[in-house]
From TrEMBL, chains A, B:
MF terms in GO: DNA binding; DNA-binding transcription factor activity
Name of the molecule in the record: Phosphonate metabolism transcriptional regulator PhnF
UniProt keyword annotations, A-Z: DNA-binding, Transcription, Transcription regulation
Species for this entry: Salipaludibacillus neizhouensis
Alphabetical list of PROSITE patterns matching this protein: HTH_GNTR
Listed Pfam families: GntR, UTRA
Xref: SMART domains: HTH_GNTR (SM00345), UTRA (SM00866)
Amino acid sequence: MINKSSPIPIYHQLEERIKTEIEEGSLKSGDLLPSEREYAETFKISRMTVRQAISNLVSNGYVYRKKGTGTFVSQKKFEQILPGLTSFTEDMKRRGMVPSNELVEFSILPAPEEVAHALDIKNSESVYKIERIRLADNFPMALETTFVSKHRIEGITEEIAHTSLYEYFESTLNLNIDHATQLIESSIINSEEKKLLHMKTGDPVLLIQRTTYLDDGTPLEFVKSVYRADRYRFMIDMKR
Amino acid sequence: MINKSSPIPIYHQLEERIKTEIEEGSLKSGDLLPSEREYAETFKISRMTVRQAISNLVSNGYVYRKKGTGTFVSQKKFEQILPGLTSFTEDMKRRGMVPSNELVEFSILPAPEEVAHALDIKNSESVYKIERIRLADNFPMALETTFVSKHRIEGITEEIAHTSLYEYFESTLNLNIDHATQLIESSIINSEEKKLLHMKTGDPVLLIQRTTYLDDGTPLEFVKSVYRADRYRFMIDMKR
DNA sequence: GAGTGGTCTAGACCACCCC
DNA sequence: GGGTGGTCTAGACCACTCC
């Protein structure tokens, strides 16, 4: 159950164990968990280690603590758990669709004002511009334009633009994407985008501007997206 | 600097101290913080207590840790920090506007299907229905319909509906609002809402459906909102 | 009063990074 | 090799809740 000589931290083993019990139903919504001291004695580990495991479960919304009373399983429905920041590719896969891209433009140019500001670089600096139609099950869902500082990130190719940029950033470059700010607004499709997305005048679209940051706070990419409102709804979970 | 006999936890005092140093500029973006052992010795406290303070700062995005190297101040621009889940009232105040409400409907009725599902109650159960035009600087921004289980929450009055429901939940009832899921989509104004928001046919709107939860996972309220797209853009910050 | 989570201590060993 | 954060221990006292 808990392997003390494993390279996997004990708190993480306990965390996964409890998580499994919740997901498999042996711990149900509203149930009282064993106390921290009980866990500590059962597994012959320190109470502080137990606390670290439970604190992580609290952060992830699996359980909540009540002072002087105990720790309980949350009511949350885990089948509809919402992930945090996701890429288009991940998003569509999660919705059970097959994502693909059509490259509209791949170029390197001096950063436009708005882009330079978002990426916190000078106007003269070179950026990649990657414009793609993003499809799900071969149906156009969005038009997405990504800007990345060429000085910060090297080696983006058309090849990579055809798959997932996030995967390239994280798996190949080993960058730690930490968070993103997004500006979401409702609008009407404009004439340029109309054809690319197979829409007609007056159709509503969801405009999303995203700036993605690494854990040290450096902006990684600036993305402007136009989503077909009839095909795409944005879902988020926010902490108070 | 650090008062050990204060009722305020030591980790929280240290946390606030470091936060102040960052905000006032004595610790700048990219700066290396004193090591955990250094803090511990300086303030004659345990390293675990220091770690608790720094862990909270990491969660809030103020600093980040690099294994084997140290802890650094993030690049984040704190003047534009984005808060988490906010109410309309808080949101507008933060944007420098004066929020107000116009009550359109205040009633108690059996929960419609969609509402019952969101609040996890039976169809027959009574719910408050509070429909309000939400104004900023006396200009209509949104039409908002809130549903709250009458069985769970008692004592909502028209009086309260004229101010802030969140304030009532948190300050008066001492409820802990934990998080909310939101479904955001782009649409075109419909004929019923057109007049109330002073809009015309074909104008784009932002539709937001929100379910707010307490820390034990109980749904507190279900809200459907229609925002004027020309006046309102939604801004969020998401963790990866 | 007994049990719970919240805070705190004074150590320890590890893997990792940089010199 | 020396310093850093990551993990872990075996205690302790507190405030709080419930009986």
